[in-house]
């Protein structure tokens, strides 16, 4: 059920779970993307005359109030993006919340304090769920990026109140369905990032679902080393050689092509502008490390992107934060963006570093969908159930 199913809500108290877990430096929100994503839901409910009560977590305060994890600091950024006054209550339950809600007029927006200041949040404690539910008539979840958590404000509340998906949740699920649910084939996945150990489940699931799996970033070294290639001083999890081999074997059985680097950009130190050169992947000097995939590999990856109807992307191909090791990621991202613009590719990307990498390549807006979710996007790509989504789907 979506907001389209929510009519006649003037005067109703709508509890809206949003993700305001945004980066903050010196008290300022440095990336407002997540706030921008939830603004349409908040404004739509407010325009329909609902009393819009925002629930969110911020950081990992371990069940008790922590001053620098107060959502009060985020309220001005929300206010600016909504271009509407945002009231604040210093607790998400109890008298402080109840009094603030009693003062609301129809269409008002109220932000409640960090749900994780109560230990019942992460435990999905029925007592906290009941206390939260007392503040609302309707529940809307617009926080896909927190939907992998079975918490009181993400899963518990949906069992207690009539529950609906917000606009961002809806858009996210539609995009993900196009990406891996029922995609147009061939489907190509690009998985990069530093370590295999954080992405074993992901790789094991993808080889069963996609036609080609491009492995880049530091994690490619573990696969190369497992095949007997000397990766010099490169980041490499040698203890995962057997895991890498089993993923390659599973891919063969499933008919999924594994695309590993043929060449690499090497350097002796990891710093901007470090002396670097391109070498064949079988000729990495013992004292050098691979910091990006090389031009031959980029050509092969772009060839796969050209053949794909659907692309799912998680993780950069190289150490993109430091030039010139951003070249492969930027080149592949630009190629995928160009094909998406012509309507011949559905491109879905997600995960913290991936969003930063696509922003760096200045193509994030050209992708079909860029998810702001980190862990939730990964767990979805791993084929794991997302409790916050599943409970919404169960609504009659
Ligand atoms: C995120 O930032 O990925 C979400 O807000 C979830 O945060 P968590 O990993 O602390 O649960």
UniProtKB/TrEMBL annotation:
Q: Kinase as a keyword?
A: yes
Q: Which residues form a coiled coil?
A: none
Q: Report the catalytic activity.
A: (2R)-3-phosphoglycerate + ATP = (2R)-3-phospho-glyceroyl phosphate + ADP
Has UniProt tagged this entry with the keyword Transferase?
yes
Q: In the Enzyme Commission scheme, what number(s) does this protein have?
A: 2.7.2.3
GO MF annotation terms: ADP binding; ATP binding; phosphoglycerate kinase activity
| Amino-acid positions noted as binding ATP in the UniProt annotation, renumbered to this chain | 199, 321, 351-354
- Annotated binding of substrate, by residue: 19-21, 34, 57-60, 116, 149
Q: Which Pfam families match?
A: PGK
* Entry's localization field: Cytoplasm
Biological processes per GO annotation: gluconeogenesis; glycolytic process
> Which pathway does the database say it acts in?
Carbohydrate degradation; glycolysis; pyruvate from D-glyceraldehyde 3-phosphate: step 2/5
Q: Which EC class is the enzyme in?
A: transferase
Q: What keywords would UniProt list here?
A: ATP-binding, Cytoplasm, Glycolysis, Kinase, Nucleotide-binding, Transferase
Gene Ontology CC: one annotated term: cytosol
The residues that the entry says bind (2R)-3-phosphoglycerate are: 34, 116, 149
PANTHER family in the cross-refs: PHOSPHOGLYCERATE KINASE (PTHR11406), PHOSPHOGLYCERATE KINASE 1, CHLOROPLASTIC-RELATED (PTHR11406:SF23)
Q: How does it assemble?
A: Monomer.
**Can you tell me which family this protein belongs to?**
Belongs to the phosphoglycerate kinase family.
Question: What is the name attached to this protein's record?
Answer: Phosphoglycerate kinase
